[in-house]
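Minutes, project check-in
Item: structure for the 295-residue chain
Input as provided by the requester:
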Amino acid sequence: MYYSKQTLQSLMLGWPDGIPIATTKSLLPWRSRFSFYTFLHIHLHERFSAASKPAQGGKMQFTEKKLTNILSSLQSLTESLRWKGKETVWENYYGEARQRNDYLQEKKKIVGEWIGELPGLKSVIDFGANEGEFSLLAANKNIQTIATDMDHSAINNLYKKIKAANIKNILPLLMDLSHPSPAIGLNNDERSSFLDRAKCDLAMALALVHHLAIGKNIPFEKIAQVFAGRSNYLIVEFVPKQDEKIQSMLKQKKDIYADYNEENFVRSFAQFFTVVKKQPIASSGRSLYLMSHHA
């Protein structure tokens, strides 16, 4: 990723035990050979692996010291690398959101109050967390928090932020909710799917539903099913069709979303959730819903 400037985490789905060294070498540019550690651990290693033959009799001697030296060298390599990819669409989302009058401030106030009111809250998952503005609200209340987003740079910025601040109770994960990690392995039973593992007391889906409904063409009912069973409570934001962000999205595609309205949104989610509270967000036209999952 460092050399190609591409986000390649999804390769790990195909090779969960590690990307083969020959494949890794083929993805690296020629200039990577000028890095001592990359040359040693990738190019030279691959050359010897391809040329070597299985040992005849006896055991290969590989001492603990040799293994420690290799791990130390690999650590030096990875610690020297910094992501330098291009800026993404969502990387500066909060900077733009702060320009919308008091939208972000009011939204944080409402979400913070609701989190504080829910009894026995020990875990939160923030779907579409971006750089974690709302994940931090939960984490600051000593709640174990999972922050997911499909934007690599946003999640990377969150990772750097919590690392610098030594925040231990946020787990940032790169995850496309329309294409979550599946169950894999023998009988699809060795590693559970992401959604089977994503069980928390509270799920948050803030400024996310319209991206799934209009950006990904997913019906409200299917979106509600994603959140159903993940948590006891759900804080979800509805963005009306006349919102400038949705109108901007519709400039790029035909408007086939006649069913996209708040009434259908509530009806679809009511199959799995009960609305506890609704609160408009300042003068934005957007609304927040606090819902509880049907027992």
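Outcome recorded: The radius of gyration is 23 Å.
No further action items on this chain.
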